[in-house]
From TrEMBL, chains A, B:
Gene that this sequence comes from: ARF11_3
Pfam families, A to Z: B3
Compartments, record wording: Nucleus
The protein, known as: Arf11p
Source taxon at top rank: Eukaryota
Entry keyword set: DNA-binding, Nucleus, Transcription, Transcription regulation
Length: 229, 229
DNA sequence: TTGTCGGCGGAAGGCCGACAA
DNA sequence: TTGTCGGCCTTCCGCCGACAA
């Protein structure tokens, strides 16, 4: 999807959107004789993040074999904040109020010699879609705001007060934005076509078929609904 | 969902939204030793219609046994039209232009002694949700239009030029509205969580399990994607 | 007959500082 | 410091008849 440096940022964005307790383990997988390999994703409609884990049955019986894939360290430093949205933040009346601490730590520096310093921020969400925001420092007393572009983001992501806005900057200056919802958007399909029962049976059959024929299969791991499978 | 007379209308609405070639057969089911019984539905998001068919394995071996359920005749007459939406119909600039023939045949009569005769139409969609439209006969030359309320319907149903608007009136004066799309809305889940493979396997297992244990099971029949199952 | 347009009035969007919690 | 509000300007919505295909 992106050049090398960007992948780190997407992975960090995924972590931020999923929440601190939702890291996907990849070492213990070996205990069940499945060499790991997973990919982080997000739903198109809700931006709900999930992990797709590709599993292949293995005859390797040593669960203590160190896993080279997980031993890599992140190479760059990240600057990020998460803010719970106020009523004003999500209202169509105005923009987004950036807390001073967040602005100082995470937003690119403004030229403070100007009367009303302003800049355009261009950030990508977890799908790689670009979002533009006007960042301005104005008012009395002075404050940081996101104005033009913010309301489109709120509408497109269907954000309401209580949801959280995720912002991330890499050392190289690349920006990412994301969303963490207070109440997940209900999927239209969950109530109609796809029965949980059918899915569960399908997964079981797929897994056993995979073991018998020694072929690969895929599991989707959704932080919000871990207990389903 | 509704009192008796309304059910007929919903069934007719389902037929109109699915298209003339999409009637759900219910006689030949017997040939496969499944006493029939189905219910028409529509997806919450796209209004795509489908049929949910409940099947129970049967030891009855006479395929020619007449089916009493399908021999009933509809009791009331329906007045309906389907119009392909023009660019103007779906534009936010104005309302919906009702073809004269359609207005004469299907819309409730206006009081033509008025200068600009108008009335409010209240119609339910396939979910039972009410939609209100202002119907007015005005302009030079005179024409039938749906104005206030129409744009909300277009936005909510995500209609674009080329899609079709379905209108239905029963003898009792009850009104129904529906939608038939040129290009189906792609479901966000179809590209992510739910794999066709898992669904297919789930259905097969459910069916064989049903036969073995002689219990009921359910199949969803979607006119647009008959070939999937 | 009916699709599209210009005109226009009103509602909502959205940028601003004021102010108080 | 920052959530909310009144003010005000602009954009877009949406109802109208005109007009031509």
């Amino acid at each position: 999807m992106e050049d090398g440096a960007g992948d780190d940022l997407y992975q960090e964005l995924w972590r931020l959107c999923a929440g601190p307790l939702m890291d996907v383990p990849c070492v213990q997988d070996r205990v069940f004789h499945f060499p790991p390999g997973h990919i982080e994703l997000a739903e198109m409609e809700s931006d709900e993040v999930y992990a797709r884990i590709t599993l292949q049955p293995s005859s390797d019986t040593d669960p203590l074999d160190p896993n080279p894939i997980c031993s890599e360290k992140p190479k760059q430093k990240f600057y990020s904040f998460i803010k719970t949205l106020s009523t004003s933040d999500t209202s169509t009346h105005g923009g987004f109020s950036v807390l001073r601490k967040h602005a100082n730590e995470c937003l690119p520096q403004l030229d403070m010699t100007m009367e009303n310093p302003t800049q355009e921020l261009v950030a990508k969400d977890i799908h790689g879609v670009e979002w533009k925001f006007k960042h301005i420092y104005r008012g009395h007393p002075k404050r940081h705001l996101l104005t033009t572009g913010w309301s489109s983001f709120v509408a497109a992501k269907k954000l309401v007060a209580g949801d959280s806005f995720v912002f991330l900057r890499g050392e190289n200056g690349q920006l990412r934005v994301g969303v963490r919802r207070l109440n997940p958007l209900q999927s239209p399909t969950s109530s109609s076509v796809v029965s949980t029962q059918n899915m569960r049976l399908g997964v079981i059959v797929t897994a056993s078929h995979s073991v018998m024929t020694n072929t690969m299969f895929v599991v989707c791991y959704k932080p919000r609904f871990v207990s389903i499978f």
